[in-house]
From TrEMBL:
Pfam families: DAP_epimerase (PF01678). It comes from the Bacteria. It catalyses: (2S,6S)-2,6-diaminopimelate = meso-2,6-diaminopimelate. GO terms for biological process: lysine biosynthetic process via diaminopimelate. It is found in: Cytoplasm. It comes from Stappia sediminis. HAMAP family: DAP_epimerase. One of its GO terms (molecular function) is diaminopimelate epimerase activity. It is an enzyme of class 5 (isomerase). Pathway: Amino-acid biosynthesis; L-lysine biosynthesis via DAP pathway; DL-2,6-diaminopimelate from LL-2,6-diaminopimelate: step 1/1. This is Diaminopimelate epimerase. One of its GO terms (cellular component) is cytosol. The active site is at residues 77, 225.
Length: 302
């Protein structure tokens, strides 16, 4: 390996995979090609999102920069907010931290369990131009969109919402009855979504439980997507399908979501895991594991 080696953490939130860089002392700048190579699950470290922790220009505990596996930058990631919140709280000995993102300020809180973190994802947005959509819809609880034959569509009439990024939720009786790996890319890039969209299949189990499968924008099928869980919970409550406090079951595990009536903020609680510490050569992209999991390497930068 060369001389330009930098440390990283491999983390996940319910199987939502992250590579985390601490760039508060020295910038970490990677090209889209490098990001895609590092994110490759076969030949690279493998991740759903690459998270760069930077100094906050406005005085928050940190700024969180997010790139998807395809190299594109995105504004929000709920599970990453919980993972980075855990690291920042542990290094500072605090029970709450504020994280600046391109989607605004997000807050993470301790639950008393060091592995379970709550993230305040802020207020959802429902206006067609805030999601955004390419044309005006007065009611975004169910928009005119379908895939498949006109007289017998495969999926149709999704709920749409923005929880830091755009989401479309299709309500189905069986989330496994559809080939989301085939139809996900078509829906993600549908012309109605000028910034593309995350696509979820959701089945309401009860007033307090929903099962969900997600095609994530710029990533593909994912074991967990925090903002998708928030989007589904909010869309379900808004349409009177469930209560405002639910458990969302994803392939990677459950997330507890509460859409508070007091301030309309969406609170998300779930597990986090540090898989291992590592070093990567930025020139060659060769990497090695250097430490065990569940031991943060982020250091306070004075």
């Amino acid at each position: 390996m060369g001389e330009r080696r930098i440390p990283f953490l491999k983390m996940n939130g319910l199987g939502n995979e992250f590579v985390v860089w601490d760039a508060r002392a020295e910038p970490v700048r990677l090209s889209p090609d490098q990001i895609r190579a590092i994110g490759d699950p076969e030949d690279g470290i493998g991740f759903d999102q690459m998270i760069t922790v930077e100094r906050s220009p406005i005085g928050a505990d940190a700024f969180m920069r997010i790139h998807n596996r395809d190299g594109g930058q995105v504004d929000a990631c709920g599970n990453a907010t919980r993972c980075i919140g855990r690291l920042l709280m542990q290094e500072a000995g605090k029970d709450a931290v504020t994280i600046q993102t391109n989607a605004g300020l997000l807050h993470a809180y301790s639950t008393g369990d060091p592995f379970r973190i709550t993230a305040d994802m802020g207020e959802p947005r429902f206006a067609w131009n805030e999601i955004p959509l390419a044309e005006e819809f007065h009611d975004t609880r169910a928009i005119e969109l379908q895939i498949g034959p006109i007289d017998k569509p495969i999926l149709h009439t999704p709920s749409v919402v923005n929880v830091g990024n755009p989401h479309a939720v299709f309500w189905v009786r069986d989330i496994e009855a559809y080939d989301l790996s085939r139809i996900g890319p078509l829906l993600e890039s549908h012309p109605i979504f000028p910034e593309k969209a995350n696509i979820s299949l959701a089945h309401v189990l009860s007033d307090t439980e929903i099962e969900v499968k997600v095609w994530e924008r710029g990533v593909g099928l994912t074991r967990a997507c925090g903002t998708a869980a928030c989007a589904v919970a909010v869309a379900a409550a808004r349409d009177k399908r469930t209560d405002r406090k639910v458990t969302v079951h994803l392939p990677g595990g459950p997330l507890q979501i509460e859409w508070r009536t007091s301030d309309n903020h969406v609170m998300m609680t779930g597990g986090t895991e540090i898989e291992y510490e590592g070093l990567i050569d930025i020139e060659t992209l060769e990497f090695q594991r250097t430490g065990p999991g569940d031991k943060p390497i982020l250091e306070v930068v004075k």
